[in-house]
Amino acid sequence: MTDEIHALWAKGAIVVTYDPNSPHVPPPSRPARDGRVNLVEPGKAPRLGKGGSPESRVAILHSLAHIESWAIDLSWDIIARFGQVRAMPRAFFDDFVLVAADEARHFRMLAARLVTLGSEYGALNAHDGLWDSATTTADSLEARLVIEHCVHEARGLDVLPATIAKFRKNGDEASAALLEGTIYPEEVTHCAAGVRWFRYLHARDVEKKDVGEGGQCVDLADEGGGPDEGVVKAFHETVWAHFKGVLKPPFNDEARSKAGFGKEWYMPLTQRPTIPGAGA
What we know:
Elements: H1 2-10, H2 54-82, H3 90-116, H4 129-136, H5 141-169, H6 173-206, H7 229-242, H8 253-259, H9 263-266
Helix pairs in contact: 1-3, 2-3, 2-5, 3-6, 5-6, 5-7, 6-8
C-alpha cells in the first residue's frame, strides 16, 4: 500500500493534499497489525547479543525489521494526524511520503535478508515500545517530530555504525553492506526531516519569522551562523516535556550534523536541568 501511494504521489496523481473545509478525522490510536509478530513486554524481547553467532545476527536483523515496520506506520500517522489540522504545506507531505517509502523498502530488504539467513520476519517475539512514543505525542506535531525523529531515529544513527561493524567483524558482509549502503544514509535524511519541520513550525507558529513564499520550508541553519537560539531552546523544552529519560552518549556527531543539528541541540540533554521551573 505504501508503494502504491508513493507512486501515485510521485507522479502527481494525488492533486489535493487535504480539504481545509472538511472536518479533521484523526487516525486510529494504534495502526492495524496482521498478527504476524507476537508482541511482548520490552524486557521479554529476545536479547540481541553481539553478532557473534548466526542466532544473534538474525535477532539483530529481526529487531531492525520490526522497527522499520513501525516506522512505516509512523510516517503515515504523522501525515494523517497532523497534515490537515496544522495546515502543513505540500512539502511536508512530500517529505513524509518519501520517508514512508524509504522505510517500506528498508523493511522489505531486511525481511528478505532474514529469509536468506534461514529465518523470517515474525519468527521472533518483538515489542512495540516505539509506538508508545507515538501515543504520548499524539497531541503535538512538534513533540512527534522531536521525539520520534530527533531522539529515537537519531539514536539509531548513534548505534548503526557499531552494528555494521558487528556484522562485518563476524563475516556477514551482505548485512553490513545493506545497513551501511542503504539504511544508514537514508535514516540521516529522516532525522533531517524532523529537524527541518520543527524549525518550520517554530518559525511559523512561535516566533512568526519569515518562512518563504507560499509556505515553503526554510532551513534556518542555512541563513547564517548556525541554529537559532530560540529554536534550540524550544527543542530542549519539547524533549523535557515528552521524554522521560536523558540522552546518552556516545553520539554520532557527524551523522547528526548532516541531519541538521549540532552538539548544542543534544549535549545539554544528557542531564536534566536542576533549576526550578526549567522544565524538568
